[in-house]
Write the structure tokens for this entry.
Amino acid sequence: MYINFWYPMATSEELTDKPLKVRGLGQDFVVFRGEDGKAKCLSNTCTHRGGSLAGGKISGDCIQCPYHGWEFDEEGFVKRLPSLGPNPKVPARTRIDAYPVDERHGIVFAFLGDLPEEERPPIIDVPEWGQEGWKSTLQSYTLKGNYERSIENGIDPAHNEFVHDTHGFSGEDEEYHVGEMRMDKVTQWGQGFWHTFKAPPLPKDADFKGAREGAGDLEAGTGYHGPSQVWTYIHLTDDNYMHQYLIERPIDEENIAVYLLCMRNCYTDDKFDENVMDRNLYVAKQDIVIVEDLHPVITPDTNTKEFMVPSDKCILMYRESLKEWSNKGWKIDAKTVAATEKRVAYAIPSPARHEQKGWVLDSIPLLSAEKDSSKLKATG
Ligand code: FES
Ligand SMILES: [Fe+2]
């Protein structure tokens, strides 16, 4: 799992008058909306004696620990420390990590890392958002699987024919093969491709322009952005598009929270929302069955332990990107964390760790940055 990316922590709707305890990257966070209306995200561990802040309550723009009532503001500073009486002099070391928050598309994102603003990888771009003629739905669910396995499933063109009867022929098509993969959306943070595939007939609907009678060629594009976000564009006809964004938060290495944002420029009437979401869930469940039952659960350390074929091209690129981010020193040292976490409370380092020294919680162990990336490639 990687620090220094934006992760979806909750839907906007989930933030009510109660704080939420949200697990991500194997750590706990408290997410809440202050009286100022802004969503906030802090490390969940109280620096006093380890109270779970999400078990406390929102007090104005602060979160109050349920154990002894310390109150932390959105920057992690203690604003109230009741046992010291009114207006106490609060030691700076009591501060907890607070994370930048960006609420958009109905999702509360937090930047889980310590990079300064100008260096942060962006949240996945959703260019259709707010555009005329586009409609959105948002669904969220969890699954018991590894997020890398899930992302790789998302960018794999060859599974559709077998896993999704909505997109393929369940292996009955003798002519089936994966066609040319045309690369697209190549950025510093990800890449993807377009390809043409044969799909079963579209549902005929009075409001749906251009429905086909028989099977036909569909244009589809997909790609990854960062370690846990995928875009999938399906062009049902020349001008009827479904653009989906699978935005994941690794809860830990074996569990995932998924936020599925679906943008469409067809079936735009509200009455189709339910149909679209039902179909999305139908397809997602087919993927979940596969991803929850892969062996090993977590992607192997080297590509030699699986036999890759040309249709796995984008997956190999994703694995190269992960290595690059690991080389930057952004990968959590999961083995060390697992061996020590019963006795050590860790925090994902926040940007304020660059300004202030002396924090109560240890920063989570990270694999050291690799100066010479060619070394890793040679062993991969
Ligand atoms: S443990 Fe949080 S105030 Fe004491
Ligand atoms: Fe799928």
Notes: The CA atoms of residues 268 and 304 lie 46 Å apart. Residues 135-320 form a domain with the Naphthalene 1,2-dioxygenase Alpha Subunit; Chain A, domain 1 fold (CATH 3.90.380.10).
